[in-house]
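Run folding on both entries below.
>entry_1
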Amino acid sequence: MAGGVGRYNDILDTFTRYIAELGYDGVNFSLVAKELGVSKGTIVHHFGTKDRILAALHEAYMTKRLAELEYMIVELDTPSERLAAALHAFMIYHVEDRAATVAFQREVVRLAHEESMAEGARLRARYFTLVQQIVEAGIESGEFRKVDSRIDSFLMFGSAQWAWTWFRPEGSVPIEAVGQALVDLVLGSLLTNRENLAELSDPEGHPARIVREAIRAVSEAEEAVSS
């Protein structure tokens, strides 16, 4: 069983990397089978179809991101801290989990209405709802201005969704600076009192540290389950 799980993960990881590099249409079973030294039948045995591999990618990615967001919500006390952490996380994932993040973002709408993608869609909706609830809690507490929480949440996700098209880890601007700018932009427009904005947007501040702690904790939990 352990070998089967390991081979499943190897196939999914390799497909994910190729989708990030080439896009869904550029990847096929032969390409992945050749790299891993397995038959195409082995891939079919584990996944059945290419569409199902894409669905598995979405499900694995969003399961991890949800666990991390839930960790942040528990560990942070205020809506402003929680939203700052979520925004930092949007950008940190472009370094900490780059291949999966790029693969997910460039292909998230593909086959969106197919039954095979239903679980991934449910997980994405849950993630969106949690972020929207953070915004609503900030409005209720008086930390945030009164805004349309749904529209503002869509705008945040839209900003993050296209980062894969222009951000490069090897570029001159570090991801920490990008995250800082995003937090400053979003919370700068939401906060009724900007006194703590610098701390919230600081890449070394408490919310950003909790993001990295969440990533480590979820990763360690996954490793413990698979070992």
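>entry_2
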Amino acid sequence: MRIMEPIKPVNIAELRAMRARNEKIASLTCYDASFALIEDRAGVDMILIGDSLGMVMHGGNTTTPVTVSDIVYHSRCVAPHLKRAFLVADLPFLSYATLDRALDSSMRLMQEGGAKMVKLEGGREQASIVEYLAVRGVPVCAHLGLQPQFVHKMGAFKVQGRDDAAAEAMIHDAHVLAEAGADLLLLECIPAELGRRITEASPVPVIGIGAGASVDGQILVLQDILNISPLVTLGRRPRFVKNYMQGGVDIQGAIRSYVDEVKGAAYPAPEHCFG
């Protein structure tokens, strides 16, 4: 009689080990129990309760209206159904504007929502927040590049870091945030070459969404790869998104294909990257 090996949950140490052995990290967003089960069984390494839920679940135009309670609710729907995947939850808009607020919001995401890590947006200006959380046992993912919570300040969803000064500033930000205690970096919508430079210099794993193929792992919004998000439905599919439902596969097959292509470095292809 064959004894089944127990499922080993992914943790920060395993994400670092994956980076060390050049194994790509496959990540997706998730917001409910049904998809949590499918993603976990399909081999997704890391799941994000993203504030993207404000757009793909709530139908908004930005992530700004999403609250801590929204993230806690969706995280609580997902967390109990994960046997292997590592669960990260977004700190939503202004929920980490002060040290005390950041700690209180993180406490809720981890205690009530079951998250294993929190994610926040911003560069070196967030270093004090990252350090404050890290020394208190809160794992942090720092999000650079296009920052959806800053859309009203940036003016639009657009590629970041294209000029030399902006690229050098982002490289510096990545260094400062890792030094402050960030356990992961997430890069969104930046040139592939900049993604490579940041990844090579980073002491921690780097996850990309529209950041090229040289990062340590990839993340996409679940509804985007299933071709059902408002953006793709309206014909505004981001360059970095691939439709994994093409060809008539089922949902589980689409998610497995995504994981396989990330692991095999077939995704992202050049057409999904920014120059």
